[in-house]
């Protein structure tokens, strides 16, 4: 176990700053997730911690010890890459036992080894595959075995790079729950990298959203979901993505061009007449209430017509014409209106995120919700 600190870590490849002045403090036993799109610098960050790349600036400390000049072998980190490194001629059981036999993380009796392997393989659902060779496994099983090799041995830090990426959606969801349980049990500081927001929100004690080598926001999942710092973070969380609708402040209200909709500007929002904003509304929070349905106080109603209704499992995704920008709404499939129906979409004011429109849309900063500015004490 140990803390992990990165101070001003920078790694450049040619003209590209893969990691740009990155500072993170990860607590002992914390499960920290880096979420970001392809090329954001996630893997390079893990490699910097593992000592697998030479960093240009900054430093990494593990368990309060500066790792500058310390070889990867001596850092006591266990890393799982997206590509799985397994011994092809060894069985699953032998692959899992090999990290325990190296002696560098302690000596394990046969019984200890068996117990550790048992716990990990049961958690990962691969305990029926112990006698198979890697070539006799599916990609998902191979990936779980590779993850098992990492989790089986104690380390100060686990570094996990998209370890569930080759699993199908169902298995991935169940593995998330099991990994969480395993993390809780082992209490090992973990730095976990993913581009899957559900994984990030469900696994992370804290999540850091990475963009172009920098962390844009670091927060607990619930805080980040409620208060994404900018449009980039807001778009990174949620599938389908948050609806983003341009609006202008006129006479104390946000007016959405092309519609009759006007959302009152709540007190305390730092916004001036004529300013352009983006109103963000998550599809799951755009509630279809039927035409002329009851919206209730504290919400805004947008009348529209269902252009497309696409059933996706238990949910249906609706594309709703409003006269202005279309809105995407997700509803339980059995409640979904037919294509062509007139509907009202009700959105709670507190679920309407207000971003000051920036030249690059992703840079637009959140200033609060349509219900008001964020209260400081609500932040944590
Ligand atoms: N060995 C390398 N040589 C040159 N450029 C590299 C190298 N490794 C990474 N890069 C570049 O650095 C940037 C960050 O890469 P990195 O692999 O860390 O991103 P990532 O967030 O892990 O992406 P992905 O999710 O696709 O794995 C990218 O622009 C990538 O092309």
From TrEMBL:
Keywords: ATP-binding, Nucleotide-binding, Transport. InterPro entries: AAA+_ATPase, ABC_transporter-like_ATP-bd, ABC_transpr_MalK/UgpC-like, Mo/tungstate-bd_C_term_dom, NA-bd_OB-fold, OB_MalK-like, P-loop_NTPase. It comes from the Bacteria. The keyword Transport applies. One of its GO terms (molecular function) is ATP binding. Residues 4-237 form the ABC transporter domain. The keyword Transcription regulation does not apply. Gene3D superfamilies: 2.40.50.100, Nucleic acid-binding proteins, P-loop containing nucleotide triphosphate hydrolases. PROSITE patterns: ABC_TRANSPORTER_2. This is ABC transporter ATP-binding protein.
């Amino acid at each position: 176990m140990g803390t992990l600190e990165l101070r001003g870590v920078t790694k450049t490849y040619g003209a590209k700053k893969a990691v740009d002045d990155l500072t993170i403090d990860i607590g002992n036993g914390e499960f920290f997730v880096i979420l970001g799109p392809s090329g954001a610098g996630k893997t390079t960050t893990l490699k910097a911690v593992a000592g697998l790349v030479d960093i240009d600036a900054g430093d990494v400390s593990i368990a309060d010890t500066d790792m500058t000049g310390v070889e990867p072998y001596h850092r006591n980190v266990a890393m799982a890459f997206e590509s799985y490194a397994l011994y092809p001629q060894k069985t699953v059981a032998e692959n899992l036992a090999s990290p325990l036999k190296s002696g560098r993380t302690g000596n394990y009796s046969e019984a200890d080894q068996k117990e550790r392997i048992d716990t990990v393989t049961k958690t990962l659902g691969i305990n029926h595959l112990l006698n198979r060779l890697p070539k006799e496994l599916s990609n998902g099983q191979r990936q779980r075995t590779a993850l098992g090799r990492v989790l089986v041995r104690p380390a100060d830090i686990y570094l996990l790079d998209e370890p569930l990426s080759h699993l199908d959606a169902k298995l991935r969801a169940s593995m998330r729950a099991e990994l969480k349980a395993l993390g809780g049990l082992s209490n090992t500081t973990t730095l976990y990298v993913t581009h899957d927001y559900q994984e990030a929100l469900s696994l992370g004690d804290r999540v850091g959203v990475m963009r172009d080598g920098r962390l844009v926001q670091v927060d607990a999942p619930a805080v980040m979901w409620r208060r994404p710092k900018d449009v980039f973070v807001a778009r990174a969380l949620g599938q389908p993505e948050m609806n983003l609708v341009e609006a202008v402040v006129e006479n104390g209200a946000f007016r959405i061009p092309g519609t009759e909709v006007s959302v009152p500007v709540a007190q305390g929002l730092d916004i001036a007449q004529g300013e352009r904003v983006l109103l963000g509304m998550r599809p799951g929070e755009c509630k279809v209430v039927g035409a002329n349905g009851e919206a209730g106080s504290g919400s805004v109603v947008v009348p529209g017509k269902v252009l497309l209704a696409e059933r996706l499992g238990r949910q249906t995704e609706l594309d709703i014409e409003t006269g202005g920008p279309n809105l995407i709404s997700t509803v339980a499939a059995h409640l979904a209106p037919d294509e062509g129906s007139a509907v009202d979409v009700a959105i709670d004011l507190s679920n309407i995120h207000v971003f000051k429109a920036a030249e690059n849309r992703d840079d637009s900063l959140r200033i609060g919700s349509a219900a008001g500015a964020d209260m400081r004490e609500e932040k944590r």
